[in-house]
Structures are given as structure tokens and as C-alpha cells.
């Protein structure tokens, strides 16, 4: 082991007494300051509850006490932690990985603050056309009125609705929904009925209608209000009006264009935006060529480029460009003599830029462009961007709390991460890191190992001290991997049952790439961060395969991604073979299984349907004619009406975020008293939802169907979860394993393509071993599994490897090596090979 004692004695300790957040067992603990402290333990053991839920939450609470109640509302406030006392706690900054929080308008340039510097550079040291006055820095931002292109309002793209975009199939009649852009369901029928009253022919194919009628229906600004007689023909309507028959109601017409544009700019729903977007045509703004700025702003140049061009350089090229300005070697000739002060400004700003870029390049992010929007970044990339920004912030005396900074990093990139952490520490800060990666754990000054297991079976501190001491802790799963270097048993690669072939894939940094994935095998796709793994697997393969299967990609997948930056999809590529063996596509990701407390593991897996059936079959339930629906907390009959089955009610507080309190009627049970009178083997439905999977496994031993679901949940390591634990409280790793369990219980079809992108994120090496076993069972049943992965334990256990690279961004995007793990481990150009080889010895 490579542990070196810290270069200095610890300068002080922070002390925790009586921590009880979530599953923590009233723990006491001492942790050094000004050190790299790594929190380890199996997934669900309580690491985050300690590092984020207790230490960070308490630091934030103390800070917020000092700010005005109004300002407090602006924070994403954590709840007050369950802890008796914490002393010696410095102010904390959390660099947590969160999906979808960044706003659409934020970009790599804005989160790193590099854009501010570049705008300043253009404003103060740019080359202006003769006679043009100098512009303020904000004139170089598309998000200000002073900078935004007047044609596209700073979006870079313009959107139009046309007959073709709103009526994709003109052989349909209006009744057959020719105007696809119109709303579905009732409102759509309403518009159709209004057209009938108005005398338009809704049963003639769209293309046979007169142009005048088509234009009016799509583009009119008029909004006539007419009587509506649902189900009547136009003749019948006329007769009804003559005879003074009262209409069902009066309906207001709205042209399709008006409907699309109005709702597009007013809806809050990402799914609605996504739906409407299909009916719009978008094109690069011709005025600014997609650069989003006014002409005057774009006329200012630096190093011969306008600010839009410079924002499209990968960061490593930007750094090369700025270097000569920073060190003063750039020759700017005559100008230099004319405006020496401007040259000085240029040098100062360029030097600052180069310094900031250096950290970003070290962290392996040199392939990103300033203008790249943050919602398209992976959570790991975003966290490293924020980390790099902190390294240059010159703060000291704070504690940075990070979760899994190694997520998304190839082992070759981990060194750079450690050096960035080292810099923050050297500047006088403390680092609290939740991490599973053994390389990072080995570099800790201090380890806090939480366990021994997950949930109720975890929450104890097994060890807190310098890493070598962990070796003596028999109960620690971390110790087994950190010291014994458990090498997995050799794996005999399977023979492919055929090939899923992709040809001419063009997307992001992939250009005309051909790739083949073996069917009936476990394939891992490897390569350094930014090499193109996700572009190939999670973007192109998923889109092509789902289109092939006629599946619609869910809007949920794109949630939070507004329209403004959705770059034109340069989708090139076809599936040229193998799809005949695939009937289903399943993406097993770490996204929540539901966004409200109304979903939980029992509802998601279908287990709850069986349980409710059991309750409906009891004697009392039958006597009272209670059906299975009665036992759902989402249905009016059986649930508590005070809280509508939520179990808690929201209390609005003036000036403070709303808080949730247990429901005063059912006290959290979610059901009404009558429903709770029904018991099955002595327990009511609320008590069953309170059970852990392990307890329920004993309790339902007599019911094969329920037992089957519970068995797989235990096999994926979720025995500790409560059946009714709300989806909102589950970690990404837990959500992913619930999805896997749901698949494993319907196993045996053999015709499914499973795709996973970095499934080991948040998983302890012992959990990773379990994951491999489960993926293996999916393959054993004849399915095909494709995994994007950095964890060599998984790669070594796969049947086939596709290594992408050799570098990141435009320096990557090629298949460097492909074959069995043993073959790829010997490939000379592959950066993965040496790391993989270690796991095959
Ligand atoms: P780790 O970080 O070690 O993976 P966590 O601290 O996230 O573990 O979780 C520890 C336990 O607390 C788990 O059983 C988890 O389900 C539970 N838990 C996590 N978040 C919440 C929450 N918001 N409310 C209740 N329980 C939670
Ligand atoms: P990996 O999965 O290997 O880390 P990615 O496929 O995410 O790599 O990225 C490959 C290249 O494509 C990088 O240069 C990255 O910045 C770019 N890229 C990835 N996704 C997007 C996107 N949604 N928009 C623009 N560029 C992207
Ligand atoms: Zn424009
Ligand atoms: Zn209630």
C-alpha cells in the first residue's frame, strides 16, 4: 500500500457527538481539519448521511442563521441534522453531484467564470474597427439586452412553425389528427368540433383541402367563439342552430401556430416543451450565425477572432492561444506602441485565464468548449468544473465536501484529480470526500469507514484514523479490498450469438465510426473521459435501437434540458444487422424511480399489486367488499383524505421554506381508519409498507409470487430498504438496483438489450461484485448487456471490450482496441490496457 504519512501534524480536530441522521446510530467521531478525509463503506451504509446530511448541513445551518430570512429562501436548504453537538466545524462548501439543477442558460464558460474574463478581455483589450467606441463587458454577453442579437434574442437559433412541421402527414384527415401539433384528448376534439360548426371538411385528407382553408386553420390570429354540438355533422349543426337547440357549450378556436407558440413560451413543463418542439422547425440565426450576439459586439476581435469563435474552441486550444499573451511574447506590433496600457490589460487577463485553464486541463476537461451548456454535461464533469473553479478561488479555512469526484474518470485521469485536491488542501482547506475508488482512498490522510452494511444494518463507525489502521478491522468490507487486493476469479469469455452492427456513426466527436457489439454477451465500452463512450452508447445506440423498435424516447430523459441550447443533432449512422434478435431495449440508469413520495420500491417493482391482492382476499375485506384498489394510497376509497395518502402535510412558513409535518389524522399511515382495520397475518397495510425487504421476506414466506420479487431484491443487496420508503429518499445506486431487480424478476425472455452508463457510480467494490453477478444472470438468460464503464473489475469480468480513444474530444472518437479483455489488455495504443492487465493477472 502506498500510504504516506501527512507532511504535517493535523492542525486541529472537529468533534461530532450523537449523530443520528437517517440510519446513523448515535455516533461520536473525531476528524482532523486541513486534511484529506475519505468516507468509505458499502452503498447505503450512511456515508452521505454523515458527510452531507450531518457535517455539511450543520455548517450550512450555522451560516444561514447569519443571513436575512429573505436571503435564506434563495438557498437550497438542507434539513436541520439530527445531531447533539459538533465543535470545531469550519464553514463548508458542498460540491455535490446533482443532476438537472443547473439552469439551461449556464454554460462551461459561466460556471467556471471564464466567460467573465473573456468578456473583459474583449471589452478592454479587443481590436475595434476604426471609429467604433469601446463596449462594456456586458455587451459581449448574449444574456443581456446590451449584447443579445436582436433577431434571435440571444438564443442563436430561430424557431418557426410551418405547414410541414405542424402537419407531418398530409394524407390524414383532420378527424384523423392531421394537425399533429394540436393538443391530444379533449381539447383536440374540441378544436375539431369547432371546425365542424364553422363548416370545414374534417373528413377530407388534408392535402385535398383548399389552400385558403389550410392557411386559416393553421395560421389565423382570429379566435372565433362558436356553439359546439359534439358528434354532429355540419348539416346537423346548422339544423340545430335553426331549431334553437342549445349547444353543449361554446368553444373558442385557436389556430395551430398560435397554439404552439403560445404554449411553447408559457408552459413550465419540460415534457410539453419537448412535445411542441417537434412541431417547430429550427435554424441557425442568419443574423448572428448562431453566435447569439449583436453585430457591433461581433466586430470586436482578439487574436483575429470574434468572441463567438473563441467560445467554440476546446479549452486546451484556448490555453495555447492565450499563452503568448500571458507571457508577453505575442507580437502585436504597431498597436503595442499605440496602446501600451491595453497590452498590459491583455497580459493580466490572459495570465489569469491561462492559470484557470491549467487546472481544468489537468482535470482532463480540455476537450470542453466554453459555450457547451451545462445540462449536456455529466454530473461528474460538472463537479470537476466546479472543483477547478474552487482551486483558483483563493479561499482558505473552509471544508469542501465532495461525493465521488472520481465518477466518470478513467483510472488514467485520477492522478490529476488527486493533485487538484492536494492543491486545495495545501491552500489551508479541509476536504471531506465520499469515495469508492481505491486509488483515492489510498491517498487519504484519514479514513472514516461506515458500516458494516447498508440501511438499518449500517450507520456505525467501524474505523476513524489513518488508513493503515483499517487493516485490523475485521468487519470492514473496505479493508478487504484495500489491503487484500481481491482479484476476481478468471472469467471465460462467452462466444457471441451474433453481432449488433452500427455503421457510419456521426455524433459529437464520432465521425463515420463503425462498431459491432456481440449479442448474448456482456460488453464493456471503455476509454478516458470525453473519448466518446456515451456519445456512442447512451446517445446514438439508444436512439437508433429505440427507433428500430418503434419505441418513443421518453421526455423524462431530457428533463431540465430546455430548448435554447439543444444543438442540432447531427445524427448519422444506421444499424446494419442484429436487430432481428432484439425485441426490447431497457436502459438501467441511476435516475429516480419516481419524482414524488407516491412511488416507492413496492409500487415500482409491481410487488405492491400482489400485496394489495392479498389484503383484498382476506375474509373481512371480502365481507366489506373492499377490492385491491382500496389498499392503494393513491386511490380515494382507502386513503386518508386529510393528506390524500401522502402521510404528511405541507406547512407554509412565512419567509422560510415550507416544511412537511406528519398528517394530523393518520399520523403518517397514509390510509383511513376503516382500511387499517383489515389485517393480513396480523399486520395492516401500513405496517406492511413499514417492513424492510428482509422482514417482508419472512412474513410472506407462504406466497410464491411476492416471495419471488423479494428474493431478487435481496439478491441485489436491497434487503435493508423499507417497502414504502419514498422514491425521493433513495440514492441513485438504490434506484438503479431496484430497476435491475425489476428486470431480473421477469428474466427468461432472452431478447432484451440492456444499456447501462457507469453503473458502478456510488458502489463500493463489494457492491460492484454483486452488480457483475446480476449482469451475468441477464446475459446467462440470453440477453445482451452493454455497459459504459471505468471500473476495471467490471471490464475484466466482461466478454468483450470496445476501447475508445485515444484521447478526449476531437483527439478521441476512434475505436483503439476491441476484443476479449485479454486481447485489449495487450493492445499497445490503448490507455485502458495497463489498468485492465492488472485485473487479469
Ligand atoms: P451512503 O452514502 O453510504 O450510500 P446514505 O447516507 O445515502 O448512504 O444512506 C444511508 C441510509 O439512509 C440508507 O438506508 C438510505 O436509504 C437512508 N436515507 C438516505 N436518504 C434518506 C432520506 N432523505 N430520508 C430517509 N432515509 C434516507
Ligand atoms: P465519454 O462518454 O467517453 O466521457 P462523451 O461521449 O460524453 O465522452 O463525449 C465525447 C465528446 O463529445 C466530448 O468532446 C464531449 O464534449 C462531446 N459531447 C458529448 N455530449 C455532448 C452534447 N450533448 N453536446 C455537445 N457535445 C457533446
Ligand atoms: Zn441571432
Ligand atoms: Zn393522513
UniProtKB/TrEMBL annotation:
Gene3D superfamilies cross-referenced by the UniProt entry: ABC transporter ATPase domain-like (1.10.8.280), ABC transporter ATPase like domain (1.20.1580.10), P-loop containing nucleotide triphosphate hydrolases (3.40.50.300)
InterPro entries, sorted: ABC_transporter-like_ATP-bd (IPR003439), ABC_transporter-like_CS (IPR017871), P-loop_NTPase (IPR027417), UvrA (IPR004602), UvrA_DNA-bd (IPR041552)
Biological processes annotated in GO: nucleotide-excision repair
Localization per Swiss-Prot or TrEMBL: Cytoplasm
SUPFAM superfamilies, per the entry: P-loop containing nucleoside triphosphate hydrolases
GO-annotated molecular function: ATP binding; ATP hydrolysis activity; DNA binding; nuclease activity; zinc ion binding
Residue ranges of every copy of the ABC transporter domain listed in the record: 500-831
Pfam families: UvrA_DNA-bind
GO cellular component: cytoplasm; excinuclease repair complex
Principal subcellular localisation of the protein: cytoplasm
Record key words, sorted: ATP-binding, Cytoplasm, DNA damage, DNA excision, DNA repair, DNA-binding, Excision nuclease, Metal-binding, Nucleotide-binding, Repeat, Zinc, Zinc-finger
Family: Belongs to the ABC transporter superfamily. UvrA family.
Protein name per Swiss-Prot or TrEMBL: UvrABC system protein A
Species for this entry: Chitinophaga solisilvae
Amino acid at each position: 500500500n502506498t500510504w504516506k504519512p501527512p507532511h504535517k501534524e493535523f492542525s486541529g480536530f472537529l468533534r461530532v457527538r450523537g449523530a443520528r441522521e437517517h440510519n446513523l446510530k448515535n455516533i461520536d467521531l473525531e476528524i482532523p481539519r486541513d486534511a484529506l478525509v475519505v468516507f468509505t463503506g458499502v452503498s447505503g451504509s450512511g456515508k452521505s448521511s454523515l458527510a452531507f446530511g450531518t457535517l455539511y448541513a450543520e455548517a450550512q445551518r450555522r451560516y444561514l442563521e447569519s443571513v436575512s430570512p429573505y436571503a435564506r429562501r434563495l438557498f437550497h436548504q438542507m434539513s436541520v441534522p439530527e445531531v447533539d453537538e459538533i465543535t470545531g466545524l469550519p464553514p463548508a462548501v458542498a460540491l455535490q453531484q446533482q443532476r438537472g439543477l443547473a439552469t439551461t442558460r449556464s454554460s462551461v464558460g459561466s460556471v467556471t467564470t471564464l466567460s467573465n474574463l473573456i468578456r473583459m478581455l474583449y471589452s478592454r483589450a479587443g481590436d475595434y474597427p476604426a471609429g467604433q467606441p469601446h463596449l462594456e463587458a456586458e455587451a459581449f454577453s448574449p444574456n443581456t439586452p446590451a449584447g443579445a442579437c436582436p433577431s434571435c434574442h440571444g438564443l442563436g437559433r430561430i424557431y418557426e412553425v410551418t405547414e410541414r412541421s405542424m402537419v407531418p402527414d398530409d394524407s390524414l384527415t383532420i378527424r384523423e389528427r392531421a394537425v399533429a401539433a394540436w393538443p391530444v384528448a379533449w381539447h383536440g376534439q374540441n378544436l375539431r368540433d369547432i371546425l365542424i360548426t364553422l363548416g370545414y371538411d374534417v373528413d377530407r385528407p388534408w392535402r385535398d383541402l383548399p389552400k385558403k382553408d389550410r392557411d386559416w386553420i393553421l395560421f389565423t390570429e382570429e379566435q372565433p367563439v362558436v356553439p359546439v354540438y359534439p358528434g354532429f355533422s355540419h348539416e346537423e349543426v346548422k339544423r340545430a342552430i335553426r331549431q334553437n337547440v342549445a349547444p353543449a357549450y361554446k368553444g373558442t378556436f385557436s389556430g395551430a401556430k398560435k397554439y404552439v407558440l403560445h404554449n411553447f413560451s408559457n408552459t413550465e413543463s419540460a415534457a410539453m416543451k419537448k412535445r411542441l418542439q417537434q412541431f417547430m422547425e429550427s435554424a441557425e440565426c442568419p443574423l448572428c450565425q448562431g453566435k447569439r450576439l449583436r453585430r457591433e459586439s461581433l466586430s470586436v476581435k482578439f487574436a483575429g477572432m470574434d468572441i463567438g469563435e473563441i467560445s467554440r474552441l476546446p479549452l486546451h486550444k484556448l490555453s495555447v492561444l492565450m499563452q503568448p499573451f500571458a507571457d508577453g511574447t505575442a507580437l502585436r506590433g504597431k498597436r503595442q506602441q499605440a496602446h501600451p496600457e491595453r497590452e498590459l490589460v491583455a497580459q493580466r487577463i490572459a495570465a489569469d485565464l491561462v492559470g484557470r485553464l491549467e487546472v481544468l486541463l489537468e482535470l482532463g476537461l480540455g476537450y470542453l468548449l466554453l459555450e457547451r451548456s451545462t445540462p449536456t454535461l455529466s454530473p461528474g464533469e460538472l463537479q470537476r468544473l466546479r472543483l477547478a473553479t474552487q482551486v483558483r478561488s483563493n479561499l482558505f479555512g473552509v471544508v469542501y465536501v465532495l461525493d465521488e469526484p472520481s465518477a466518470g474518470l478513467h483510472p488514467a485521469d485520477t492522478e490529476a484529480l488527486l493533485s487538484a485536491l492536494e492543491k486545495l488542501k495545501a491552500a489551508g482547506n479541509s476536504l471531506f470526500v465520499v469515495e469508492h475508488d481505491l486509488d483515492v482512498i489510498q491517498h487519504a490522510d484519514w479514513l472514516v469507514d461506515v458500516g458494516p452494511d447498508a440501511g438499518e444494518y449500517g450507520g456505525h463507525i467501524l474505523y476513524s484514523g489513518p488508513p493503515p489502521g483499517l487493516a485490523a478491522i475485521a468487519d470492514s468490507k473496505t479493508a478487504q479490498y484495500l489491503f487484500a487486493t481481491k482479484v476476481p476469479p478468471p472469467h471465460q469469455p462467452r462466444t457471441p450469438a451474433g453481432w449488433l452492427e452500427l455503421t457510419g456513426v456521426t455524433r459529437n466527436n464520432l465521425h463515420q465510426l463503425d462498431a459491432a457489439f456481440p449479442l448474448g454477451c456482456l460488453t464493456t465500452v471503455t476509454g478516458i473521459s470525453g473519448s466518446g463512450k456515451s456519445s456512442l452508447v447512451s446517445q446514438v445506440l439508444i436512439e437508433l435501437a429505440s427507433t428500430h423498435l418503434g419505441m418513443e424516447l421518453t421526455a423524462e430523459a431530457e428533463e431540465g434540458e430546455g430548448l435554447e441550447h439543444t444543438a442540432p443533432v447531427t445524427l448519422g449512422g444506421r444499424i446494419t444487422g442484429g436487430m432481428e434478435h432484439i425485441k426490447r431495449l431497457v436502459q438501467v440508469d441511476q435516475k429516480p424511480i419516481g419524482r414524488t413520495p407516491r412511488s416507492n420500491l413496492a409500487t415500482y417493482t409491481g410487488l405492491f399489486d400482489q400485496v394489495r391482492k392479498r389484503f383484498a382476499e382476506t375474509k373481512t375485506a371480502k365481507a366489506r367488499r373492499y377490492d385491491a384498489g382500496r389498499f392503494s394510497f393513491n386511490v380515494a376509497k382507502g386513503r386518508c383524505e386529510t393528506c390524500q395518502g401522502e402521510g404528511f402535510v405541507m406547512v407554509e412558513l412565512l419567509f422560510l421554506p415550507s416544511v412537511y409535518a406528519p398528517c394530523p389524522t393518520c399520523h403518517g399511515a397514509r390510509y383511513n381508519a376503516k382500511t387499517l382495520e383489515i389485517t393480513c397475518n396480523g399486520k395492516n397495510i401500513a405496517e406492511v409498507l413499514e417492513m424492510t425487504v428482509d422482514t417482508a421476506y419472512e412474513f410472506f414466506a407462504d406466497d410464491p409470487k411476492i416471495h419471488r420479487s423479494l428474493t431478487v431484491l435481496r439478491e441485489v443487496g436491497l434487503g435493508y430498504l423499507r417497502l414504502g420508503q419514498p422514491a425521493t429518499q433513495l440514492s441513485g445506486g438504490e434506484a438503479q438496483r431496484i430497476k435491475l431487480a425489476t428486470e431480473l424478476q421477469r428474466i427468461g425472455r432472452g431478447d432484451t438489450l440492456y444499456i447501462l452508463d457507469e453503473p458502478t457510480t456510488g458502489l463500493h467494490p463489494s457492491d460492484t461484485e454483486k452488480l457483475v453477478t446480476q449482469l451475468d444472470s441477464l446475459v446467462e438468460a440470453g440477453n445482451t448487456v452493454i455497459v459504459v464503464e471505468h471500473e476495471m473489475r467490471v471490464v475484466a469480468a466482461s466478454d468483450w471490450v470496445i476501447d475508445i480513444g485515444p484521447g478526449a474530444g476531437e483527439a478521441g472518437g476512434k475505436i483503439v482496441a476491441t476484443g476479449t479483455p485479454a486481447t485489449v489488455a495487450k493492445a499497445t495504443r490503448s490507455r485502458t490496457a495497463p489498468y485492465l492487465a492488472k485485473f487479469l493477472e
